[in-house]
């Protein structure tokens, strides 16, 4: 491929998505708050995904943790946990929306309930600190170039 040729958009799109998955997602997993009382479990930290919305349009999300609440500031709203982690929440009541009871696992035991008084939590700045890491961008850019070189052979 000559250096003045254009890179096909689908190849560039693939190179970017692959770089997000190989560089950004592992970095996000490392900085996500882990299991302590009132914090997320390690299971949440390892379920981040790249969601493709269009050509060169990606969203980082945690679809396994998307939920609805009936009451409080997020009434009837679908939301992604990354939004809640970075903004925090006020105390609120969690009630079932699509089911008759709530269910969650604590150790090997299942807990069932009709409502939960969630204490809320402060915003966690882990994503802010991650995005200030200049070496992350250098690794991301390098991965994109390696992907392009391997696909286009230049």
Q: Which descriptor suits the 3D outline?
A: elongated
Reading the helices and strands in chain order gives HHEEHEEEEHH
Helix share bin: 25-40%
Give the tally of β-strands: 6
Mean pLDDT: 78
Arrangement of strands in the largest sheet: 1-2
Give the structural class: alpha+beta
What is the count of structural domains? 1
How big a fraction of the residues is strand?
15-25%
Distance between the termini: 6 Å
Largest sheet: 2 strands, antiparallel
Low-confidence stretches: none
- The Cα radius of gyration reads 20 Å
Number of helices: 5
What would your notes on this structure say?
With 154 residues, the chain is α+β, with helices and mostly antiparallel strands. It has one domain. Helices cover 38% and strands 18% of the residues. It contains five helices and six strands; from the N terminus they run H-H-E-E-H-E-E-E-E-H-H. The strands form three sheets. Strands 1-2 form a two-stranded antiparallel sheet. Strand 4 and strand 5 form a beta hairpin. It is elongated, with a radius of gyration of 20 Å. It starts with 8 loop residues before the first helix and ends with a helix.
């Amino acid at each position: 491929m000559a250096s003045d040729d254009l890179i096909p958009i689908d190849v560039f799109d693939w190179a970017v998505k692959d770089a997000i998955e190989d560089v950004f997602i592992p970095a996000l997993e490392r900085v996500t708050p882990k299991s302590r009382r009132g914090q997320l479990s390690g299971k949440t930290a390892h379920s981040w995904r790249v969601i493709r919305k269009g050509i060169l349009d990606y969203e980082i999300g945690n679809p396994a943790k998307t939920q609805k609440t009936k009451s409080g500031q997020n009434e009837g709203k679908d939301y992604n946990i990354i939004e809640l982690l970075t903004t925090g929440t006020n105390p609120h009541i969690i009630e079932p929306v699509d089911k008759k009871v709530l269910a969650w696992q604590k150790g090997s035991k299942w807990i069932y309930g009709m409502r939960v008084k969630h204490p809320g939590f402060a915003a966690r700045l882990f994503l802010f600190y991650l995005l200030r890491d200049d070496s992350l961008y250098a690794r991301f850019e390098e991965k994109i170039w390696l992907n392009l070189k391997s696909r286009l052979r230049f």
